[in-house]
Each structure stands twice: as structure tokens, then as C-alpha cells.
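Records of this kind hold a single protein each, on a pair of labelled lines. Below, a sample record shows both lines together.
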Amino acid sequence: MEGYILDWANLLLRWLHVITAIAWVGSSFYFVFLDSSLTPPEDEDLKKQGVSGELWAVHGGGFYHPVKFNVSPPKLPDHLHWFYWESYTTWLSGFALLTVSYLWNANIYLVNPADPNAMSAPLAVFTALSFLAVFWLLYDGICRVFGFKKHGDAIVGAMVLVQVCIAAYLACHIFPGQAAFLLMGAMLATSMSANVFFWIIPGQRTVVRALKNGDPVDPIYGKRGKQRSVHNTYFTLPVLFAMLSNHYGWLYNQKYNWLVLIGMMFAGAAIRQFFVLRHGHKLGRNKHPWPYALIGVLVILGVIAWLRPGPKPAAAAAPTSAPASQPAAGAVPYGEVAKVFAQHCVLCHSATGLAQKNVKLDSPGEVAQHTQQIYQQVVVLRKMPFGNPDGLSADERDLVKRWFESGASTAP
């Protein structure tokens, strides 16, 4: 019953998390586009009101005319929409999902199977949460100290890049690959939401309070909020990659998985830079940003080439029909892979156990129905066993590979 309830909690939290993340990322991308596409107002009345930029757009059969005031509007409207619940709900649902999926079973998903005695489950949970908090504190300190100095944006960008590289190296050496990738995404997402909670919204509230009281508005609050908002947009694609990567075991089950993670995150940030600058290019504000897109694509292609699987033996061939009743000459005996299934798989895939995804591997007949799935999940994707709690070795994966490619016989 506990597993059933956790599965429902996982599904509903994941659903909520995806919905709110779409809303948050969508609004973030829209406002970055809007800021980059604003042009100086032509109407004299708008200029007198303090409008610094305007945009005409058409969407859904209607015309829109958003304007931006340099510091504050001459009169605060009665109804003011705030953009923060998207961020908060995304983080809260994501943290709840992290708790249900990983922290609740830390001894399975956070303790490195290669060295299960290195740390206890409580220590693993504490270390995982420390990644979220410590990264934010260091990043926030960098922004405070260097953010508004000469070449501050470049300095902050370089230092945060180094910080991300160090964090990726540590995470991938402390936790199993799948947990490490997910925690890196959660770490950056936590900083994004913290930017909203500690800087963007408080600054906006200070401005609104000053306007209501008739006090002069300090533009520094807008500058700080804008700075953190820009940082958030560059974190977005790396975070999305890290979150999606847990479906692809061949990404995080690499010896140098931390380099894979750094490379793909860097590619995401470079591609995001292309989209940020292309709006300004259309207005003649900057050169065409195609080099950023090219760099990002080349990095991705480099990772693809690096991780490509080796050539299969000439004699290797996947079965095209039901497994043979008798093993072919030289085939891996079913008894050998059955031992692997019994040790690493049947806990979650058996008639008397959880039978995850209705896959049962505790009898030859059941195994015969899922040979292609076994090969895909264990050998190609290297995603199963999930979290690899019992430390399925490379030799054991190779055994499953040879068994499948030699006919996948389930005969005794």
C-alpha cells in the first residue's frame, strides 16, 4: 500500500510540477523577449508619462500594446498582476517530488551503490539538501560582491560557470549518476526560485510601497530584479536538461558523467544566449548571435559522438520472433541471466512484488514476454535497475547483452 500511495503522489506531484513549470518558463521567456524587443515610444504623451519602451504585437485575433516605464508609472493602477506564484509552486511541487522520489528512499537512490558504506541515508539526505542551499549562498554572494562592478555581468557569469562545474564534479562523485543529474537541476532551480523570493519580489514590493506613499523610487531595485531575472533565463535550459536526463541512463551512467552534464548545461546556456540576443539583432542593437547557437550545437554533437555505442559484433543479431525453446550453440544460458534478474530485478518486477509497469521477471515465461524491454532498459539505456541500488555491474549488463543478442533463450 505504501508503494501504491507513493506512486500516486509521484504522478500527481509530477503533473502539478510540469504544469507550473510550463507557466513559469513561459512567462520568463515572454518577458525576456519583451524587454529585448521594446523600442523607444513615438507618441509624445507616452514619453511624458515616462515610458521607456513599447511593443505592438498581434495574437489570438487581437492587437496588444505593452509599454514599459523606466522607473515607475505616474499613477499606480488599482489592479496590479504579480508574477511569482508560478515560481513558488514550481519549486514547492518539485521539492515535494524530490522528497517522494529520492529523499524518502535515500538508501536506494542517494547512496552510491559503488560504495554503500561511504555514508548513511540520513547523511545522504543532508548532503543533497546542502547542495541546494550552499550553491544558492555562494551564487548570491558572488552577485552581491561583483554584480554591479565594472564588467560585473561577465565576472559573475564566469564565476558561476566555475561554481557549476565544481558542483557537477562533486555531485557525480558523491551520488549515483541519476541522482547527481537531478540534484544539479534542483540546485539551479532552487537558486532561480530564491532569486524571485529574496530579490525580485521584495524589490518590486519596495517600489510599490514607495509609490503608494508618494516617496521617490530608487531605480536600484529594478536593476537588481532585472539582473536576477536574466540569470534565471540562462539557468532554464540547463535545468530542463538535468530534469529530463533521468530518463536516459546512458547519459548519467558514464565514467565521466560530470563532463557530460557540464557540456550539455553549457550548450543549453549558449543556445539560450542566442535566443536572447536575436531579438536585439532584429532591431539593430547587436550583431547576429549565430555563433552562440553554433557553439551550443557543436557541443551537443560532440557529446553525441563521444557517447556513441561501439560497433556490435558481426554475428550479433536481435531476435525477430519468440525466443527459441532451446539455446543456440554458444548462446548464454538462461540460468546465468536468471541469477542476475533474481538479484537485481525481481524485487520490483515479480508476481508477488510490485510488478512495476506490469513487468514480471521471476519466471522464464514472463521473461520471454519482455526480452526487448529488458535489453532496452538494462543494456541500451542502462536505466534499470532504477537507481542501481544493488550495484548491477558492467559485466552483468554485458551478460544480459550477450544473452539477448545470442537469441534470448529462456530454456532451462
Remarks:
- Residues 313-325 have pLDDT under 50 and may be disordered.
- The longest helix spans residues 177-213.
- DSSP finds 15 helices and four strands in the chain.
